Amino acid sequence: MNIAIAIDGPAGAGKSTIAKLAAKELSFIYIDTGALYRAIGLYVYRNGVDSKDVEKILPKLEEINVSLDFNDKGEQIVLLNSEDVSSLIRTPEISMYASDVSAIPQVRAFLLDLQRNMAKTNNVIMDGRDIGTVVLPDAKIKIFLTASAEIRAKRRYDELIEKGMDVKYDDVLQDVITRDYNDSHREVAPLKPAEDCIYVDTSDLDLEQSVQKLISIMKENM
User: Fold this and answer.
1) Which of the residues 75, 169, 189, 214 has the least number of beta carbons within 10 Å of its own beta carbon?
2) CATH number for the domain including 164?
């Protein structure tokens, strides 16, 4: 029987980075569900559609094929209509588009089966906003990963600067605060800890400590 591990939490909590490293350690498949929403957000953005214009977004879903694959280094890549958009979906602007489109019920339904089917056929660590509450409510292990808004903003800021992007910390912090509010107040599948989750705050932990803490929790509960 396949094992599913769900990791939820707010933007910038380090879910993707930590889950990816933990999956490698445990020989699990890592699934970044946020990347799927980012890809849809990117498509909407490229087509000049407002991220909150539901009537114009829904017909676009018929034009979208989004999937996850792996390159020759074993790294997960995001394919949007066969184009590798892995780096293009990580900008603050596309983050906000992803947050908006993910609040649309039809968009979430569009991706739900894809996410569940991945978990049916593999041992997976899947991260997102509603994995333990909606996508994989029967996951064997559910973790809610978080950190303070300021810490999360600093981590995201450093990541974007390292990629050569011209951003300001205050703008990144405001984006984090805005996205927190949007994700936790949307009507469909809002961000919230699952009742049976393990709550982990990494504000005072570095990356290596965070990874080891989650791996320890996973091994203890498998």
Assistant:
1) 75
2) 3.40.50.300
